[in-house]
Amino acid sequence: MSSLSRNAYGKSHVRLTRVARHGAFHELTEMSVDIELQGDFAKCYTHGDNSSIVATDTMKNTVYAIAKKHPLTAIENFAQALASHFIEKFSHITSAMVYIEAEPWNRIEVHGHPHPHAFISGGSEKRTTRVTRTRDRTRTEAGIIGMVVLKTTKSGFVGYIRDEYTTLKETTDRIFATSLQASWLYNQQEVEWNESFQSVRQAMIDTFAQHDSLSVQQTLYAMGEAALAACPSMEEISLTMPNQHRILVNLEPFGMENKNEIFVATSEPFGLISGTIRRD
Amino acid sequence: MSSLSRNAYGKSHVRLTRVARHGAFHELTEMSVDIELQGDFAKCYTHGDNSSIVATDTMKNTVYAIAKKHPLTAIENFAQALASHFIEKFSHITSAMVYIEAEPWNRIEVHGHPHPHAFISGGSEKRTTRVTRTRDRTRTEAGIIGMVVLKTTKSGFVGYIRDEYTTLKETTDRIFATSLQASWLYNQQEVEWNESFQSVRQAMIDTFAQHDSLSVQQTLYAMGEAALAACPSMEEISLTMPNQHRILVNLEPFGMENKNEIFVATSEPFGLISGTIRRD
Amino acid sequence: MSSLSRNAYGKSHVRLTRVARHGAFHELTEMSVDIELQGDFAKCYTHGDNSSIVATDTMKNTVYAIAKKHPLTAIENFAQALASHFIEKFSHITSAMVYIEAEPWNRIEVHGHPHPHAFISGGSEKRTTRVTRTRDRTRTEAGIIGMVVLKTTKSGFVGYIRDEYTTLKETTDRIFATSLQASWLYNQQEVEWNESFQSVRQAMIDTFAQHDSLSVQQTLYAMGEAALAACPSMEEISLTMPNQHRILVNLEPFGMENKNEIFVATSEPFGLISGTIRRD
Amino acid sequence: MSSLSRNAYGKSHVRLTRVARHGAFHELTEMSVDIELQGDFAKCYTHGDNSSIVATDTMKNTVYAIAKKHPLTAIENFAQALASHFIEKFSHITSAMVYIEAEPWNRIEVHGHPHPHAFISGGSEKRTTRVTRTRDRTRTEAGIIGMVVLKTTKSGFVGYIRDEYTTLKETTDRIFATSLQASWLYNQQEVEWNESFQSVRQAMIDTFAQHDSLSVQQTLYAMGEAALAACPSMEEISLTMPNQHRILVNLEPFGMENKNEIFVATSEPFGLISGTIRRD
User: Fold this and answer.
1) C8, D36: Cβ pair inside 8 Å?
2) For helices B216-230 and B193-210, what crossing angle results, to 10°?
3) Closest Cβ–Cβ partner in B163, B224, B275 for A58
4) Which among D34, D165, D268 has the least Cβ separation from residue C13?
5) B139 domain-assigned
6) Of A160, B11, C139, D39, which is the most buried if we count CB atoms within 10 A?
7) In B, which residues are within 8 Å of D165 by CB distance?
8) Same domain for D125 and D152?
9) Which of D134, D169, D199 is the last residue of a domain?
10) Using CA atoms, how far apart are residues B174 and B181, in angstroms rounded to an integer?
11) Touching C: which chains, 3+ CB pairs < 8 A?
12) Using a CB-CB distance cutoff of 8 angstroms, which residues of chain C are in contact with residue A267?
């Protein structure tokens, strides 16, 4: 005999573009929304009885309808509104998770002036939020994915374990490149979302740039500590940093000395370092 | 004050190709290996002291060296060997996780005969394994990702909740397409890995084809039950099924009736259904 | 002063799913269609006068409407029908190009019997066609993209130029892997499309498997010759073959000899070889 | 009988990272290089005689060796140097094409000051060049790929052809979003590459923002004209603009009026508009 021990379902990649028009001055917000519900849905799985099911198509419609009514000043409070909708409306739903990735649009500058309605993409870096609302509490996380940074010096790696499979040479001056993924948990549900996000982001960038790195792990920890220091409403932060290796090219066969100038970037394999830093 | 509450690191996407040569008859095995270690690494994060760190480059070398010595009859026992290596060699490592995705190579047939050394890719479907070894136990999971299947009938969706945001029409005959991701936990550490994998895979495919689906959830559950029935050494199975919608095209503006013939496939948004079924 | 020297526009990635129902036995056809028109559209570019423009949204609708009326026995004749539609209907259009990629669906087998309505993806390999219709002629090409093949022996590379930047070692036994892209031009407009496609595909696969390769270039040429021999209605064929390198791993630091067994697959950089072979 | 009517081969995705060190102040250049040679290589294809072949591995080495010697002030002159190397060294090579995509690194600002050795990715937009050198001439093109821009108003589309498959409604106020791909041909081989690139890029961005668009085609043409006006050393420019549709969401079923506020972004299908504008 077998039984259903866990279940969840939802709608992913609901793409929302919202234009707020203040006369000729427009604000643009663009995001992708994932919703996942948990609750008393077992009879749908086991007996094909859909009477407890909120259709995923309805979830999609709900995103657009609530977007119309919501001020949308931050993705965090919009995610809270969406999660609350499902928890408050349907008593058989025990958990509503809303995850949002925001597109990084910047205003175009024409002759040094921000344009009122034209935008250019800020690239691969996206701001994220994850709100998980259950019957008795709300968890609000913010985050960043795809923040690609690189430093050309002040990074080394020495003193690690040498065993029979170790061939890596120690170095006190290597390139350090990564695509940061970070998410942090707030210790309250009303925060100056945009200011907090910017403080955390800048603290991590500054630390990355200025840190004298003895390992990716150490820099990750320093960035997490700086983020916690910059944002008192943060409870903990998790960072994941792939080590996007740049490998010194051997120019000796061509009679040349490579003075830490010429490197090849490799995509695979990559080191992957993670850690969670918590306020005590 | 803050502290490190969780840490892990490893090497991802170590790509291994292994050719076993039995005279003119060759066997090809190709995979991507991820390794993640947990343990007493805190001083690396907090103080840049790397003396407890197995370099991720060493992990990569270890994959190749152990592959040379291992019979590699299944990815599951190779993952076990890799995880064991780290746990047994380093007492400060508390957990070694090894995840492998195998490339789906099939032997080319020439004039109806399997060729001894030429292969063609089986496509997007990959066999996976995840072995997590700690000081006191081993967990071995097998799985599939990217198994793309579609049925043109015997799928409906009716009787779900209708609220103010519901516009979806009920249907008793729709297309059902998905890209299955499944992983299952074995209740023992020595299994006929390849036979078990094939039994589970075939049970899920057969059930998908033959099931009279009242919802994606119901078919997912039926596939999980069939998998458990087909493989006694399985303890539980988790399935994730995106609903890759095919939407009926409205041909009325062109004076045509669409008798469930012409559809548009949409990538976004998509329903995402998951569940875990457990042997009682 | 400046002027418009070339223009073209169209709709890309029109995704069409067609189900043909013969009682309980269903046929599934799935494809992505690109349309590109050239003609007298200059005043749209230069003056914003859209009176000569067939909207790309109309092109999309046209795909679905013509699919409803067409037997769709092959993507080649469907592409011809679409291209003809635009040329015949609009006298100011000088060229209509239709490119189609077909999804590789195979019928699921249950207990050895092909299932009447359930399908499984054949993976990354796609059949393609490109029809270009102008006022006075039609060009019909067929093709394959994403045919990933590998042979573990009977491939070498020696005798190439050695200059001051050459470090590659000669080898008489290497792995040869590629993702074939091929397209061929028919010398007539009515062909047994499906039989021709299968003959060409099989001729290329057989040759890849059986060829004693002195270079990727030589195998490419042999595959092209075999394709021409297998299909009398083919006028010429172009093949593109990335060299998806597998590099021998150096196991000597670990006291092991690598007898052509253990390799690492690299994605970048890759050789890229192309050629066109023509019937004289 | 058949014969080789065209051939070419090369190395793609040679990834180069170059750090120039001026004391503590570092400059970072990162790119991916493709090389393709044409010439008298037929006997390699037809007879497996590699004596005329420059190995693609040698091409890769050549990129790194020449990078070491080259000032690398612009990707255009580096591509010229690479193309010249092959043409000048090997008389049987008739054409050497070098294509480069540069990674968009920006200097990190810490407390408002540009950091001497830390960088952050500028995202998806890449600067490109393509140099084609033959025995008697050099063609140097520059370009942009992945420049994602959006305007929330001043874009309409009316007056197009209405036929039996037309359902699109005319609009005088829609969102216009695209991912620009542009490449332009210089009329001379020594140019202030970086200044020219910046002038062309800014002219296209300014025009996109300020243009009152009656169609994608018209804006494309206006951007091309502006680019030609901004850069006297440009001979012609080709632009390709996918129409990344934002579609108004129908909120009426929820009793709401959508005042051009709430849209869904769709990836497929997309319009694809291209044109070449030439200096007379």
Assistant:
1) no
2) 150
3) B163
4) D268
5) no
6) B11
7) 254
8) no
9) D134
10) 22
11) A, B, D
12) 267-268
Q: Do B159 and B116 sit in the same domain of this protein?
A: no
Is D11 considered catalytic here?
yes
Cβ–Cβ gap A120/D154 under 8 Å: no
| Active-site annotation holder among B56, B94, B134, B138 | B56
Residue D8 contacts A where some CB pair is shorter than 8 Å = no
Residue at token pair 């359902």: D167
Closest by alpha carbon to A20, among D152, D261, D257?
A: D261
Which of C54, C157, C274 is facing D7, going by the closest CB pair?
C274
* Segments of chain C scoring below 50 in pLDDT: none
Asked whether the beta carbons of residue A228 and residue B53 sit closer than 8 angstroms, the reply is no
CB B200 within 8 A of CB B227: yes
* The residue count for chain D: 280
| Nearest residue of A to residue D176, measured between CA atoms | A118
Residue C245 and residue C198 in one domain: yes
D148 vs A contacts (CB less than 8 Å):
120-121
One domain, residues C32 and C51: yes
In this structure, the dihedral spanned by the alpha carbons of residues D190, D191, D193 and D199, taken in order and rounded to 10 degrees, is: -160
C3 inside domain: no
The tally of domains found in chain D comes to 2
* Domain of residue A207, residue span: 146-278
- The catalytically annotated residue of C26, C43, C56, C151 is C56
Q: Whose CA is closest to D130, among D59, D62, D183, D71?
A: D183
Please enumerate in sequence order all residues whose Cβ is within 8 A of that of B192, keeping only pairs 6 or more positions apart, or say none: none
Partner residue opposite D160 with nearest CB, options C55, C218, C271: C55
One domain, residues D66 and D184: no
C235 closest CA partner among C194, C280, C192 = C280
Question: Does D15 contact C269 at a Cβ distance shorter than 8 Å?
Answer: yes
- pLDDT at position A229 over 90: yes
- Verify that D88 and D199 share a domain, yes or no: no
Amino acid at D67: A
User: Are B183 and B101 in the same domain?
Assistant: no
Name the closest residue on chain C to residue A268, using Cα atoms: C266
**Confidence at residue B1, expressed as pLDDT on a 0 to 100 scale:** 80
pLDDT value, residue D123 = 86
- On whether residue A4 sits in a domain, the answer given is no
ipTM of the complex: 0.97
User: Tell me, what's the pLDDT at C1?
Assistant: 80
Q: Is D104 on the interface with A (CB under 8 A)?
A: yes
Cis peptide leading into residue A269 (ω within 30°): yes
Q: Distance (Å, rounded) from C-alpha A19 to C-alpha A77? A: 17
Mutate to test the interface with B, among C13, C17, C176 (most CBs of B within 10 A): C17
Residues of chain D with pLDDT > 90, as a percent, come to: 99
Q: What is the distance between the alpha carbons of residues A46 and B238, in angstroms, rounded to a whole number?
A: 15
Per-residue pLDDT of chain D (280 residues; tens, 9 = 90+): 899 999 999 999 999 999 999 999 999 999 999 999 999 999 999 999 999 999 999 999 999 999 999 999 999 999 999 999 999 999 999 999 999 999 999 999 999 999 999 999 998 999 999 999 999 999 999 999 999 999 999 999 999 999 999 999 999 999 999 999 999 999 999 999 999 999 999 999 999 999 999 999 999 999 999 999 999 999 999 999 999 999 999 999 999 999 999 999 999 999 999 999 999 9
A residues 114-153 closer than 8 Å to B (CB) = none
Q: What is the pLDDT of residues A144-200, one digit of tens each?
A: 999 999 999 999 999 999 999 999 999 999 999 999 999 999 999 999 999 999 999
Domain's final residue, options B134, B166, B192: B134
Query: Do D59 and D98 share a domain, yes or no?
Result: yes
Closest CA–CA distance from residue B31 to any residue of chain D (Å): 23
Please return the burial class of D110, using the count of CB atoms within 10 Å of its CB with bins 0-12, 13-18 and 19+: middle
CA angle D202, D206, D210 (to 5 degrees): 175
Q: What pLDDT does D195 receive?
A: 98
Partner-chain residue, chosen from C164, C255, C268, that has the shortest CB–CB distance to A267: C268
Instruction: Give the CATH number, domain containing residue C190.
Output: 3.10.270.10
Look up B11 and say whether it is catalytic: yes
pLDDT of residue A1: 80
- Of D85, D126, D211, D245, which one is the catalytic site residue? D245
Is B252 part of the contact surface with chain D (CB cutoff 8 Å)?
no
